[in-house]
Design goal:
Layout lengths: L18 H6 L7 H10 L4 H11 L6 H18 L7 H24 L10 H11 L6 H24 L9 H7 L4 H18 L7 E3 L5 E3 L1 H17 L9 H16 L20
Antiparallel strand pairs: 1-2
Length: 281
């Protein structure tokens, strides 16, 4: 299902080591059955084929190979870059630390006047270096600016803690997703879905139902995610089910689409934890 090994060739001593080697050692591949099914579901549109002919033909032998590589790229991003949910407890600890450290630092910067003007005075140093660049700000100006920033952070932490970490109206959707235990899976679904739309040229639709005879009726996007997701989750060895119910997939796709309609791209979470502010038209 997945191959988690990489042979690094070359001369002795040339092998990659450390965190980069650990990441590169993860090389996911769909098994033959899943690959065939995914290629059936990911029929490329003419725009994608044109891009393939223009730029990728020398690198990848066939369009099918390029499609498989793109889908396995989603899996490798997920397996190499573990996105973590940010629950209320973690957020509270973080804000408590900001509150405590900013208060301590403000006390430190105002409570040791005997340090002022000595070689240990950071604001005297900032005054000298800024004046060397033509900036006329004084030691006091630098001190005031630093304390203003610390006070702003301190008050922000106190405010958020006092509010019970309840998100504002415009933060609820994104915050609700990021606090979920299944947040990493949600990011993977968004990445797979974006790749599916790019290859097929189709708009992702979230539909899943059964007719009177009990036959499964799902949209192409739901069908695609139901095939692509399980082997990746299995390779990640995450807790919870690897095979998701169609209704769960439908709801996840609908959530991804809502973010897309707002210009927000959750599939960018591997590169930008703050993907909610990356508005893309």
């Amino acid at each position: 299902m997945a191959s988690n090994s990489l042979i690094a060739g070359g001369t002795p001593g040339a092998q990659i080591t450390g965190a980069l080697a650990d990441q590169l050692a993860i090389q996911f591949h769909f098994d033959d059955e899943a690959r065939i099914r995914l290629l059936e579901l990911c029929r490329p549109c003419e725009d994608w084929l044109e891009q393939y002919r223009d730029g990728a033909i020398e690198l990848v032998s066939t369009p099918d190979a390029a499609i498989a590589m793109a889908l396995e790229g989603c899996a490798n991003r997920f397996l190499r870059n573990r996105v973590k949910p940010a629950g209320k407890a973690d957020q509270r600890k973080y804000l408590q630390a900001i509150e405590a450290h900013t208060e301590a630092l403000m006390r430190l910067l105002t409570g040791y006047q005997e340090i002022d003007g000595t070689t240990a005075d950071p604001f005297r140093f900032l005054e000298k270096t800024s004046r060397a660049r033509g900036d006329k700000r004084s030691r006091f100006d630098h001190w005031a600016r630093a304390n203003e920033s610390l006070l702003t952070l301190h008050l922000f932490a106190k405010f958020r803690l006092h509010s019970g970490l309840d998100p504002a109206a415009d933060e609820k959707a994104e915050e609700g997703v990021k606090r979920r235990t299944e947040y990493p899976r949600f990011v993977l679904i968004a990445d797979l879905l974006a790749t599916f739309c790019r290859i097929t040229g189709q708009e992702a639709t979230a539909y899943a139902n059964r007719n009177r005879l009990g036959d499964r009726q799902v949209s192409p996007a739901v069908d695609f995610i139901s095939v692509a997701l399980p082997p990746i989750l299995k390779a990640a060895r995450l807790k919870g089910p690897h095979i998701l119910d169609d209704q769960v997939i439908r709801k996840e796709i609908a959530e991804v689409k809502r973010f897309w309609e707002e210009g927000r791209r959750p599939e960018l979470a591997y590169a930008f934890a703050d993907w909610g502010s990356k508005r893309i038209g």
